[in-house]
Amino acid sequence: MLSFQERILQKEDSLTASEIKIIDQLKKHDKPFLLSMNELSLLSNVSEPSIIRLYRKLGYTSYQELKVTLAQELANQHSNLAGNETAILEEDLADTVFTKIGDQFSAAMSMTREKIVVEEMEEAVKLIAEAGRIFFFGQGLSGTIAEDGAHKFMRIGGTVLAEKDPHYQAIYASQMTENDVVIAISHSGETVNIIEVVHMAKSSGATVIMITSNENTTLAKMADILLLTQAQETATRSDAMTSRLVQLAFLDTLYTRVVAVGGDTIKKAVNKSRLAVTKMKK
Amino acid sequence: MLSFQERILQKEDSLTASEIKIIDQLKKHDKPFLLSMNELSLLSNVSEPSIIRLYRKLGYTSYQELKVTLAQELANQHSNLAGNETAILEEDLADTVFTKIGDQFSAAMSMTREKIVVEEMEEAVKLIAEAGRIFFFGQGLSGTIAEDGAHKFMRIGGTVLAEKDPHYQAIYASQMTENDVVIAISHSGETVNIIEVVHMAKSSGATVIMITSNENTTLAKMADILLLTQAQETATRSDAMTSRLVQLAFLDTLYTRVVAVGGDTIKKAVNKSRLAVTKMKK
DNA sequence: TAAGTTTGTAGTAATAATACTACATAAAAA
DNA sequence: TTTTTATGTAGTATTATTACTACAAACTTA
Lengths: 282, 282
Description:
- The structure is a homodimer.
- By secondary structure, the first copy, chain A, is α/β, with parallel strands linked by helices.
- Chain A folds into 2 domains: 4-77, Orthogonal Bundle (Arc Repressor Mutant, subunit A); 107-281, 3-Layer(aba) Sandwich (Rossmann fold).
- Helices cover 60% and strands 10% of the residues of chain A.
- Chain A contains 13 helices and 5 strands.
- The first copy, chain A, has a 5-stranded parallel beta sheet, with helices on both faces.
- In chain A, strand 1, helix 8 and strand 2 (159-163) form a beta-alpha-beta unit.
- Chain A is elongated.
- Chain A starts with a helix and ends with a helix.
- The relative contact order of chain A is 0.10.
- At the A-B interface, helix 5, helix 6, helix 7, helix 8 and helix 12 of A face helix 5, helix 6, helix 7, helix 8 and helix 12 of B.
- The first copy, chain A, binds a DNA duplex through helix 2 and helix 4.
């Protein structure tokens, strides 16, 4: 079943002025499914027959059908709010900024979610669960994400390491084996040092899981498994911030899955770590 | 205007069997506003007059009014999804886990947002913008958040430092002045080392901005400014992961605001940093 | 059992919503 | 200018929806 938006795109070229008016109203209205044809015609300054002509053109057999479809889609769309409306302005106070950051993140999550290939992610999970050693590589802000990842995965008990220094990264990479997994993080996908290190790691036989925000980049292409974050650029706030949150969500997802599919060994290790941390806090 | 739920609670005691059936159907249905009286009566195995009797009892003057109210409320409810429905299950595959993590984060953001006192956050912004030095203190996972914060704030040009080691933290704390700001991060609010260090920092005259998830804790009470994250505990996934994302959003918010209110000096510094990073990537 | 309450049936009125048509007019393209 | 296209008006048929009523049946409770 085609969505309202898709149907419009399909007929985009043949849409007439009043049809566009109707569509605008439907999009603008926050509860379009409650509108009767009459109300809609008044709102859009258009005659009722024009509405009928439109929904027929779009392939609906009745006005009801259009409304039901719309209600359906609104329920889903609600989560991925439009990016433009959530642009952060200089005059926004902290609470507004905070809300908008949340909205932008939600939008980015939806966009990213759409591109996820489950099989690939589950393959990554399997690789990590069975890996000899796990290395997290990143630089700058991506370096802190790498550390965050390492922190989490340390709990499953294997050898887990985060390294931000390119020289050390290189040393590790040169000594890897087929059992090792590298989780490399680079927002741009073109971080020179990481490219080099990933290259070395692959030469050593290690598998590379790449987390990045840009698809057509050197690093994205080198990846054995690619986890791609999507985000909408906004004027005031670099999308890097949003992407970083999505990247963390990726790591959380991987971790959650590794624990879920992991055998008793992993589950016991996680419990032990939990106890250890609790003890420290006391 | 009373909500549907409130109206029901009000009349709870006088509701009859068939009225309860109707309410159940309305609640169960995901698009109740699309139901006609006839459809609803069939679904709930109840006569149409019973429906009329019900909406009158609840104080609506027409069936339409009930539907509009319901549509309104559903639209709102949708954003703050119930925590239970988004619980991550062991059998959920990666894409589902990812989506649920996003939902949990959104819910946590809404809950946190509700408790934000703008004035306090803006006060924090002012303190940071005018601070002599800024110290980010955290341990474990909170340590990586501290580093993340430092990374961002380094760009505004002042002296910014993240420290995860308690001993170094202590040394810094002992040498602080009234111009210094500590941003301390502790999920639990009871991290022993951080308590000590915050204590020392306060003795030295520094201002302490505390980011934590638990309100009635030692650290929350010691804070000059408290930024409290809210999250719903779920069975499978520790709320720590969600809180951490919210904490990052807090830091993003502070940073965005500091740049916004900051004078030319800060803006120039941010631009310089941006150039520096771009250069490195090439 | 008797009184009261709840609910359904059935019939109906009033209205609103949808769908359709034919024609007229306005605007745009040839 | 002519033709085509887009749109609106007006009138109307059809159906769906809402709203109401009175009465009967079923069920509860005293």
